Amino acid sequence: MNFVDVEPTLENYWRAIILFGRNTASYKFALAKSLIDVSLDSKSDLITLDDLAL
What we know:
Elements: H1 10-20, H2 27-41, H3 49-53
Protein backbone atom coordinates (compact mmCIF):
# COMPACT_ATOMS: atom_id res chain seq x y z
CA MET A 1 0.00 0.00 0.00
CA ASN A 2 1.45 3.34 -1.05
CA PHE A 3 1.54 6.28 1.33
CA VAL A 4 -0.64 8.28 -1.06
CA ASP A 5 -3.36 6.27 -2.78
CA VAL A 6 -5.00 7.70 -5.86
CA GLU A 7 -8.17 5.67 -5.45
CA PRO A 8 -10.92 7.99 -4.12
CA THR A 9 -12.30 6.08 -1.15
CA LEU A 10 -13.78 7.46 2.04
CA GLU A 11 -10.77 6.23 4.00
CA ASN A 12 -8.39 8.01 1.63
CA TYR A 13 -10.36 11.26 1.89
CA TRP A 14 -10.22 11.10 5.68
CA ARG A 15 -6.50 10.28 5.63
CA ALA A 16 -5.87 13.26 3.35
CA ILE A 17 -7.65 15.60 5.77
CA ILE A 18 -5.70 14.31 8.75
CA LEU A 19 -2.26 13.82 7.18
CA PHE A 20 -2.02 16.68 4.71
CA GLY A 21 -3.78 19.41 6.66
CA ARG A 22 -1.65 21.61 8.87
CA ASN A 23 -1.32 20.26 12.38
CA THR A 24 -2.00 23.72 13.79
CA ALA A 25 -5.32 23.90 11.96
CA SER A 26 -7.96 23.31 14.59
CA TYR A 27 -10.63 22.58 11.96
CA LYS A 28 -9.41 18.97 11.80
CA PHE A 29 -10.27 18.34 15.43
CA ALA A 30 -13.57 20.22 15.25
CA LEU A 31 -14.52 18.32 12.09
CA ALA A 32 -13.68 14.97 13.68
CA LYS A 33 -15.67 15.76 16.83
CA SER A 34 -18.65 16.97 14.81
CA LEU A 35 -18.64 13.88 12.61
CA ILE A 36 -18.49 11.61 15.65
CA ASP A 37 -21.30 13.48 17.42
CA VAL A 38 -23.56 13.47 14.36
CA SER A 39 -22.85 9.80 13.64
CA LEU A 40 -23.83 8.82 17.20
CA ASP A 41 -27.17 10.61 16.82
CA SER A 42 -27.84 9.32 13.32
CA LYS A 43 -29.02 5.87 12.34
CA SER A 44 -27.56 6.24 8.84
CA ASP A 45 -24.02 5.92 7.50
CA LEU A 46 -24.52 9.08 5.49
CA ILE A 47 -23.98 12.50 7.07
CA THR A 48 -25.25 15.34 4.93
CA LEU A 49 -23.88 18.85 5.02
CA ASP A 50 -27.24 20.04 6.38
CA ASP A 51 -26.94 17.59 9.31
CA LEU A 52 -23.37 18.66 9.95
CA ALA A 53 -24.23 22.35 9.78
CA LEU A 54 -26.61 22.04 12.73
